[in-house]
Amino acid sequence: QNKHHVKRCMGMGQSMFCCDNSSPQLDIASIKPDVDFQSRFKRGNGPKDAKLRVLCLHGHGSNSDISVLQSSSLKFREHGVAADFYEGAHFTSPRDESMRSFSENPFRTWIAGTHHLVPSQELTESSFAKSLAEIVAVIDKSGPYDGIYGFSMGGLMATFLSSPNVWRGMLGLEKPPVRFVIIGCGGGSQYIADLRVPQIEGGIVPVLPPPTPGSDDPGVVQMRSLHLIGKRDRVRPDSQRILGFYAADLATVLEPDIRHEIPYTLRQDQAIHDGLAAFFQSVNMSGGGTVPVST
């Protein structure tokens, strides 16, 4: 069953994304990964004896060059984690002009629009569908992965993919495609209320149903998660809202003294790396393996 439902998401079926029941329905058959989607994938230089593999998703107005720097700040390699990188399909301006000092490559995003302007429902749902389809395609082609690391809006996309309404209700998988997520300075929560997804068994539901903290409600993301929430981050309320969608007993929260960034100085924060080490150890001990999303 797991091996064919992704084809529905990839344009083989007649599913659709929709912002609400009254808005125009978007035929997912027309939303496919770009022909060259794999060109935006970058294989990382992880340790040969890596115990875990993660796929890294950048934030709004960023790219994989920035994700590589963040993975170094988080010392993924030293923690025995092999990181690969993927970029969104949609071009945009850099989140901060200073980012041009770190990358000469184009800057991208996952949901069309700008950081200060929520686009129309039609544009939102179309770009969301395309990004989700491409992330699934990359996991299919280059995985399996144990986890996803996402910064800001990349963390939001990781959360969407971890939602039972997506991996179970829309894709028909028995388990999520990854075992854990790491969210750095989660942002973009304004999109949560607007996005709905079709279900295999019929109907259209919110991509993330309202959370019921501490319960076994299927709306809560029941997987291990680690949330880096900056004490001085301007989108700290966003990060806390996204945290609320994860099962509390499986969530680890680290609060470094940072703004909306994963700076290189974080390499020297022993408390943060002790927390990361403990989290990775718990993931390794839990086992369970990853779930291929297609043949």
Overview of the structural elements:
Helix content is about 30%, strand content about 15%. The chain has seven helices and 13 strands. The strands form four sheets. The protein has a seven-stranded mixed β-sheet with strand order 3-5-4-8-9-12-13, with helices on both faces. A two-stranded antiparallel sheet has the order 1-2. Strand 1 (about 15) and strand 2 (about 25) form a beta hairpin. The longest helix is centred in the middle third of the chain and has 22 residues, at about 120-140. The protein is globular, with a radius of gyration of 18 Å. The N and C termini lie close together (about 10 Å).
The biggest beta sheet reads: 7 strands, mixed
Coarse structural class: alpha/beta
The number of strands is: 13
- Largest sheet, spatial ordering of strands: 3-5-4-8-9-12-13
* SSE succession: HEEEEHEEEHEHHEEEEHEH
Shape annotation? globular
What proportion of the residues is helical, as a percent range? 25-40%
What's the tally of helices? 7
What gap, in angstroms, lies between the N and C termini? 11 Å
**Rounded average pLDDT:** 79
Q: What is the radius of gyration? A: 18 Å
Taking pLDDT < 50 over at least 5 consecutive residues as the criterion, the unreliable ranges are 1-31, 289-295
